[in-house]
Amino acid sequence: MKASTQFLITLLGLITLLLAAPYMQAIASIDETKAPPGFELIRSENGVELYKKDYKGGSPDYVQVIDLRQGAKVVLLYGTISSSGSGKGAFGGNDPRFVSQSLKSYWQELTAEYDAAFCVTNGQFFFMQESPTRLPFSLKVNGKILSDGYEVKNFPNQKLMLELWEDHARIRTLTKGTLYTSSAPNIVAGLDEEARKRIDHFVGRTFVGVDDRNRDGRAEIVLIFNTLSARQKDAAQVLREFGADQVMMLDGGGSTQLTCDGQNYIASERLVPQALGIVAGPGKDILASSTKPAPTQVAVQATVPDAPAPTNIPEIAQAPIAEPNSESSEVAAVQATQTQATLDLDSIAWIPVIILPIGLILFLVIKSRSAGTSD
């Protein structure tokens, strides 16, 4: 074979590999979770994974990875609403009271509605001195804003909300405008990682994060962190090591709980008014009950009459979401959604389909011509 022919074949092969490489990289970026050192995958189903990291003499960290594009979902669960609190919310909407219940009850509720129930964990902050209780921040479920939340004065510019769509998620600033104009059917609110919630103490933590893994401008991965012992910066850092572009703090301390497949990984006797249910995507022998209605709240207590608006709402420092001996802190800038120009999988899916057959044809033509001119 002539040297020129060999050169052409080699060049053709290199061009084919270079053009196909972005496609293969995009595929890998969607399906592969790069867990930080020390984290071990202990449970997985279609679109959902649970990782654990043990510490000698300490409490383990747990991280759930939920891929919304594989049909996995985050379901916002809540206790029975005993009174609506109509017009008493922070933004002029409702400030209802919720009946708190055990995480076991939430797990039973989730499994009753979804065959592919994966895990359930505690959710939003709440006011422990009331029963039924109120939520300080907003909650929207299945397109309906159930609560504005009651907190107005504290944590200025540090309130965030996790917006959940069927195939992507986002974390951004919580305001009346962002809440009431959001197209997300499900929203749970929390705090910025710098909000003073025993910020430097090693206590129970629940954080959520979102990851735009394929860099198309929309985060398709939701991450949930649970532990009995971490500072706020530790919890946020773990999620960033898993790839989170944005993070948000949910309730912690004694509320921190995690149950997966009926097994308590982090147990607590505390009742909570709101929880997060994780459901695997359809696949294999497990099928999420996508045709079933959203979880129905079953009344477990007699209805409590609608209470009048309190004239002096207790400062949040009296509630369990307060920071003892809190001091002035700098307002943290909320992380903006990444919008950099990125590689879109759909736009490059044709590359190997077109290039590889062309490469094969050219290879055969060159080889045939080479054979015809050889001695």
Write the layout of secondary structure elements.
Blueprint: H1 3-31, E1 40-45, E2 48-53, E3 61-67, E4 73-78, E5 81-83, E6 97-98, H2 103-113, E7 117-122, E8 139-141, E9 144-147, E10 159-164, E11 169-173, H3 176-181, E12 186-191, E13 203-211, E14 221-230, H4 232-241, E15 246-249, E16 258-260, E17 263-266, E18 274-279, H5 345-348, H6 350-373
Antiparallel strand pairs: 1-2, 2-3, 3-14, 4-18, 5-6, 7-16, 7-18, 8-9, 8-12, 10-11, 10-12, 13-14, 13-15, 16-17
Helix pairs in contact: 1-6
Keywords:
375 residues, alpha+beta, 2 domains, six-stranded antiparallel sheet, five-stranded antiparallel sheet, 18 strands, 22% helix, 26% strand
Describe this structure in words.
By secondary structure, the protein is α+β, with helices and mostly antiparallel strands. It has 2 domains: 45 residues; 307 residues, no CATH class. Helix content is 22%, strand content 26%. It has 6 helices and 18 strands. It has a 6-stranded antiparallel beta sheet, with helices on one face. Strand 16 and strand 17 form a beta hairpin. About 20% of the residues have low confidence.
